[in-house]
Amino acid sequence: MPLERTVEGPAAVDVPSPAVVLELLKPITWFPPMWAFLCGAISCGTPLAAHWAALLAGVALCGPLLCATSQAVNDWFDRHVDAINEPRRPIPSGRMPGRWGLYVALGWSGLSLAWAAGFGAPVLAIAALGLALAWAYSAPPLRLKQNGWWGNLACACCYEGFAWITGAAVLSANAWPSARTMALAGLYSLGAHGIMTLNDFKSIDGDRRCGIGSLPARLGAARAARVACVAMALPQAVVVLCLLAWGRPVHAVAVALLLAAQGLLMRRLLADPRGRAPWYNGTGIVLYVAGMMVSAFALRIAA
């Protein structure tokens, strides 16, 4: 299917401008993995001030490098879907000409691996796995995003779990994190499956036309919203139980209260899933990530 250009005015240049490249890399999407990295760094109990250089380098790895790479990869392989859903994005609009979207994705992949290698084997292994999932999510033949169940899980692991584990590894002299850290990273990854489902609401029409089986397109808005709410709530409930078992009752209560507040917001979401999914992303998700940080401090105190 040929890609149609929609650029108005003068002919598009052969090389994209730095501003367009930055737009392709979507800085607004870097926050979740950078936040998860900080949660992992805090959870290991190492003084942050004494390792500020490693902290900044790790934040750069999880956000401007790995997450940005995933955005470039996704936009290149989704350029035909974006021409329907969001035609003003860099590639379908023609502002990212030719195959430059692919070149940026490949270049940023190599840069990310080189940067990760500087931290040691554990971080490099996590980064390589994250990049593999990023390409598998968007690129054929696997194209995991064709199935919302598996695709959302791959995204959730990269955005939350892998970033959390990376933060703990970087601040632990490149050692693998504790079992408790791995458990919380896994639970919050499972919960992020629901966040990814809500993010897919914006592209229901294009997904259906292009045969992409995102959960909103596959299940319908109402059922997908219920699945998302359950996916977000259950892992957080397990986190509360874990914190109680680990002797952190104050932190457990804090996470429970944040979960209860999310429950109230979820009721509004379910009343109009398609209309309120963006609203919930700006309200309920803030409470979700606040619970992540509370849990990180619970582990830090116990470390």
Report on the structure:
By secondary structure, this protein is mostly helical. It has one domain. It is 75% helix and 0% strand. The chain has helices at 18-25, 31-43, 52-77, 79-85, 90-93, 100-117, 121-138, 148-170, 179-199, 204-210, 215-219, 221-245, 249-271, 273-302. Helix 12 packs antiparallel against helix 13.
Report the total helices.
Answer: 14
List unreliable stretches of 5+ residues: 1-12
Calculate the mean pLDDT score and round it: 92
Question: Residue share in helices?
Answer: over 70%
Count every beta strand, where a strand is a DSSP E run of 2 or more residues. 0
Q: Would you list the SSEs in sequence order as H and E? A: HHHHHHHHHHHHHH
**SSE class:** mainly alpha
Basic shape: globular
Largest sheet: number of strands, sense, barrel closure: none
Compute the gyration radius: what is it?
A: 20 Å
Domain module count: 1
Which percent band covers the strand fraction?
under 5%
List the quaternary state of the chains.
Answer: single chain
Distance between the termini: 55 Å
Short description:
The protein is built from 14 helices and no strands.
Question: What is the topology?
Answer:
Elements: H1 18-25, H2 31-43, H3 52-77, H4 79-85, H5 90-93, H6 100-117, H7 121-138, H8 148-170, H9 179-199, H10 204-210, H11 215-219, H12 221-245, H13 249-271, H14 273-302
Helix pairs in contact: 2-3, 2-8, 2-14, 3-6, 3-7, 3-8, 4-10, 6-7, 7-8, 8-9, 9-12, 9-14, 12-13, 12-14, 13-14
